[in-house]
């Protein structure tokens, strides 16, 4: 295969297999090309990925040597995206009764979801995450987006047990904002013990839901390495039960009467 | 920018923007290259995509001319994947009480979900779909995977209304297998009238859930153009209330006593 064709094929391979270690001989055989040619190809791919601010190739030498694509959104790219997101969310038409914000259109847009996931995954890139955990329903697409960049599975905590998942562990917890007792369930075979976990959700008010997930994950001896949310509300900051987390945006000053909201960058670039 | 660099950048651009029309002048300006050079690049990218069986570039001439990446898994690739999937699902350890099959590990694997989505999206590639609709919870990752290939949004039908979504339309329906009355809800502003819809779900028994979704979508004057599921069970085929659909695999002969299952290719390549 010619270099030009190899470059297209290699680009596709890396984008489809983030964080996966591949040996140079694999490519030599696949493309029937000398290792030295493949090495030159990799230099080109790495350079373009870095220039576009979307990641880089990590090469390791020696017998077990090879290459791995690390997706990484540059700070410039992610800051630009977060500012764009703030502007989109400040639309007063989004204010719902009760001071909630309509975000389903954003969470329903696969391209936006992909970008949000990439920003969060970039922040957690060095944490050696084994699995991404979320709670049904709204956090699910974001969790998959993060997991797909980190190349790890997703586990979904449910509020109701399902017959199709076998025996499960459940906990009761008190919701932060509504002060109601709620239940969370995780099938026994969905998570191995001592896993390094990243919790992802769409929205955090007082943090009761995330706190509940943490308690449930304790039952599996999991290590919660990171917590990432798309948006946090600042009106219950004083009562917040979760301290270590990352948010893309922060919703402040929701004024239902005057139909006004302010959305600012969250903890990540705040 | 040199051709080699352009090829990496172009490959990335197309894979990130499936089914999106882009004009040639956009690339000329982006890469500071002549239109003729860009055209030659596109020939190379198109050739490699076709050779690898993952799609092709669709070019249109004239004033509004440009190029669009159509992801399309070749029949060879998708048949191989479906056979692999059947083997994975035939593991007797998957049998759960009640004759259900444990599939959460597959649905929790972003790479598998991406491939399943690609197979389904390839089948619906020509249908001019505007939106992918699914019902919470298990179908959600598959729906996003299909939608991301088709470059359209996802709308999630819920079983319980949420305060964060504004006013909604709801229907009651009778579940096919349990014969219970159930509810489905869709926020009013989540779907425009007369949309071309593709319904995606993980599993179909008698089809009551999908039938319920169809009724709810009627309230929005939507046109259900396609129905795609990962797996169908054949034990209730006689009572099936949905006729036109596509499935990747079909689960037959679940023998709980002897711990035996048979999984065969579904309607798509059956």
UniProtKB/TrEMBL annotation, chains A, B:
Segments crossing the lipid bilayer: none
The keyword Transcription is assigned to this record: yes
4Fe-4S recorded as keyword: no
Listed NCBIfam families: purR_Bsub
Assembly description: Homodimer.
Family statement drawn from the similarity comment of this UniProt entry: Belongs to the purine/pyrimidine phosphoribosyltransferase family. PurR subfamily.
Name the record gives this protein: Pur operon repressor
Organism: Virgibacillus siamensis
Classification lineage: Bacteria, Bacillati, Bacillota, Bacilli, Bacillales
Name of the gene: purR
């Amino acid at each position: 295969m010619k270099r030009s064709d190899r470059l297209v094929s290699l680009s596709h391979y890396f984008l489809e297999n983030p964080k996966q270690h591949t040996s140079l001989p694999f490519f030599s055989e696949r493309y029937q090309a000398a290792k030295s040619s493949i090495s030159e190809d990799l230099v080109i791919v790495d350079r373009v990925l870095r220039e576009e601010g979307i990641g880089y190739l990590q090469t390791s030498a020696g017998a077990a040597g090879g290459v791995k694509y690390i997706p990484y959104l540059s700070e410039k790219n992610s800051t630009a995206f977060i500012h764009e997101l703030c502007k989109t969310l400040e639309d007063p038409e989004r204010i719902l009764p009760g001071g909630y914000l309509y975000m389903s259109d954003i969470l329903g847009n696969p391209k936006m979801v992909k970008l949000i996931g990439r920003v969060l995954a970039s922040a957690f890139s060095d944490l050696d995450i084994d699995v991404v955990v979320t709670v049904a329903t709204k956090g699910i697409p974001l969790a998959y987006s993060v997991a797909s960049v980190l190349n790890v599975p997703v586990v979904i905590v449910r509020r109701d047990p399902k017959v199709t998942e076998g025996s499960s562990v459940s906990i009761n917890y008190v919701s932060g904002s509504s002060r109601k007792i709620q239940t969370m369930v995780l099938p026994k075979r969905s998570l191995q013990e001592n896993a390094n976990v990243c919790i992802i959700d769409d929205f955090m008010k007082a943090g009761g839901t995330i706190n509940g997930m943490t308690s449930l994950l304790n039952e599996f001896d999991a290590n919660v390495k990171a917590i990432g949310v798309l948006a946090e509300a600042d009106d219950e900051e004083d009562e917040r039960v979760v301290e270590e987390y990352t948010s893309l945006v922060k919703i402040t000053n929701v004024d239902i009467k005057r139909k006004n909201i302010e959305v600012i960058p969250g903890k990540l670039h705040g």
